[in-house]
């Protein structure tokens, strides 16, 4: 347990000290959402209607920008070898590193979403639910990205391949994330059933994805 | 450092395949407390692969390796320190933070031996600068400091003397000797004489004589 905390703390500290990844993800999110009204036109009703989907899709893409770093740096400098020789099972190492990605990338993105919602005429009274849904749904994003990152470990220019592998797996998160917000904004129905599905997807990913990542990491030691 | 170790490491008929080629086969050795194994051989004969197999980082093509005597069912990888060609040093952490993290991670508690471990190779003066500013030799020293910060009975050192200066190589040789006297096992591959009392020597050579280069 202490070892897992030490690893988590180190990964978060490294992400903030090296800085680049978080800044790029936030900047990318801002730019993608900011140019959308230029493409869609100034129709405020239209923007409000597409805002949930647009905010979610842009968030997924922004989160994937730094996903290939989840294991890459540790693989490159030999840290991953030493990590396997500690007291933690490889799946816990993978879970800890995915969690660090969530804290350093997905949480800042989710907290930026309300500001970007204003650009899209997103109804202000639904903003708390938007942030809540994103905070609840994004663990699935980070943990599934961990699978992609471990599968593409050691490949050159792995980022694009990772996006190809992982984006289709985000469809359930996207569907239930968007329908939570849409139900709250336009109805019909209550936002809570899709919200609970979102919780379920995140919880299942947090349990299953590290096992898959660990299996993929083990094949990379050949 | 004073912890007396008593483990034995045995390899029975192990073999290694890399890229569809058999590097070595039928390799057996048995090391008891205080033994040192010097692994020698030309490039590409499997010295690094052997180290990684003992550290459970590479699968065995045949045979088995057992590390026994630790008293409980600790997995072999947790009894070993592996210092290979890559140092596992994070450039944006300071020297002390790097070592503190590895100690906390490897043994589950931040040891109080960090400063003593940094002192072995004289890294105390640069303990608080980011590792990005270290030279190759200093990074290697930092990687080797893990051996002292977090005591483990088996040392797997893959060409540890690379980029070290003469005095540090001597320090390393003395450290290996002290480790052996404490009952630890050291398995070292090297191309330069390290001193130290190695009780065993293992010469790896190419299996296929046609690949042998003529000097």
Report on this structure.
Chain A has one domain. Chain A is elongated. Chain A has 10 helices and no strands. Chain A has helices at 2-18, 20-40, 44-65, 69-76, 79-83, 90-119, 127-151, 158-166, 171-185, 192-220. In chain A, helix 7 crosses helix 8. In chain A, 82% of the residues lie in helices and 0% in strands. Chain A is mainly alpha-helical and 222 residues long. Chain B is α/β, with parallel strands linked by helices and 215 residues long. Chain B has helices at residues 47-54, 95-107, 114-120, 136-149, 166-181, and strands at residues 8-18, 21-31, 36-40, 62-68, 80-83, 154-158, 185-189, 200-203. In chain B, a hairpin with a 2-residue loop joins strand 1 and strand 2. Chain B is globular, with a radius of gyration of 17 Å. The mean pLDDT of chain B is 84. Chain A binds chain B through residues 1-3, 6-7, 10, 13-14, 17-18, 76-79, 81-87, 221-222, and chain B through 52, 55-59, 77-78, 80-82, 84-90, 92-93, 101-102, 104-110, 146.
